[in-house]
Amino acid sequence: MRLDKYLAHAQLGTRKEVKKLIRSKRVRVNDEICTKEDRQLQKEDCVYVDDELLVYDELVYLMLYKPQGVISATEDRVHTTVMDIFDAPLPKNCFPVGRLDIDSEGLLLITNDGQLAHQLLSPKKHVDKTYYVECEKTLSSEDLQLLESGTIQLDKEHVLPAQAKRISANSLYLTIQEGKFHQVKRMLQACGNKVCYLKRISMGSLQLDKSLAPGEWRYLSEEEIRGLKQ
Ligand code: URA
């Protein structure tokens, strides 16, 4: 992320004000005063203003278009995590809200707001999560009925009824309210089918921004944050 954008997000002023700050040599990146507002920051960079380290201790909310091939964790010895792909310094206590499998992609909320994360993930809150799903085999009307029936058993418990909307012979939108391990894949397996592509497109009121490509991210708007907290 550009230095001026980063400073503006850290509430140090408008883009115009932070540019002035940079030009007046009050901003240091690591050991060097930086006078270039378009300086690209890496995750490990430390930014100082008037010799004070900038620590984001406010709550931050980002949406990431999780690409396939990375895992939804903060650290891993083997795999690249979703936190490794950020191109800007984030508060150390940020984490992904909920999991997407390594081969799944789509909307992932990253925040350091534990209270909101709890609210979104708690099974009692019944927050809708919608997935675009492509399957190996054709989906029958009976399959859609089964997905919506609430009779599928996973981990010896019935899952809540889902909403299933067929898009083509072998693709559908599936909305579920829980987040059991591999839930979508296992629900389709219960229909005798196999998921070959899975993308989360929404979580509660938050929709994956269509202008993001896999691996890209942006901060949530105030309105999106408010919507999630309701
Ligand atoms: N359900 C799955 O099976 N996988 C995901 O990544 C998300 C939901």
Question: Explain this structure to me?
Answer:
The protein folds into two domains: 3-53, RNA-binding S4 domain (Structural Genomics Hypothetical 15.5 Kd Protein In mrcA-pckA Intergenic Region, Chain A, Roll), CATH 3.10.290; 61-223, Pseudouridine synthase. The protein is 21% helix and 27% strand. It is built from six helices and 15 strands. It has helices spanning 3-9, 15-23, 114-121, 141-149, 183-190, 222-229, and strands at residues 27-29, 32-33, 47-49, 52-53, 61-66, 95-97, 105-111, 129-135, 153-154, 157-158, 163-168, 171-176, 195-203, 206-207, 217-219. The strands form three sheets. Strands 5, 6, 7, 8, 11, 12, 13, 14 and 15 form a nine-stranded mixed β-sheet that branches. A four-stranded antiparallel β-sheet has the order 2-1-3-4. Strands 9-10 form a two-stranded antiparallel ribbon. The mean pLDDT is 93. It binds uracil (URA). Uracil binds next to α5.
